[in-house]
């Protein structure tokens, strides 16, 4: 599971190599999107300036993916949850301040590679530190900069 935000592409690898899409998509906020079929996307990529930008974009995503895999392997659940919430906040925040993310705890657990019980405990710590508030299928980031400092150790 990963987070994408404004300007990101979904399904681009399958469109380029003609393979099957490997993921499904759920939106955390309202969005506007554009559908471009594989053959049209490949034709679009034939433009040199587009291909160069797409390559840089793809390499950035690969680095993010490597970083997230490293986090899964070495960081405790609390740190992974804090970092995930920062990513979700950054993707969803329209303005500075509070951001409410509508996400079941089980989905957050899958995102950070932990059990739901471990995520519940981590959320309790972050709630006690007054970085977040939680409710049914919702997490509100109360103090984004504090959460960011907590996530970065």
Automatic annotation (TrEMBL):
Gene3D superfamilies according to UniProt: Jelly Rolls, Winged helix-like DNA-binding domain superfamily/Winged helix DNA-binding domain
GO MF annotation, one: DNA binding
GO biological process: regulation of DNA-templated transcription
Top-level taxonomic group: Bacteria
Cyclic nucleotide-binding domain residues: 1-45
Domain HTH crp-type residues, every copy: 75-145
Keywords (A to Z) from UniProt: DNA-binding, Transcription, Transcription regulation
Protein name per Swiss-Prot or TrEMBL: CRP-like cAMP-binding protein
Protein species of origin: Actinoplanes campanulatus
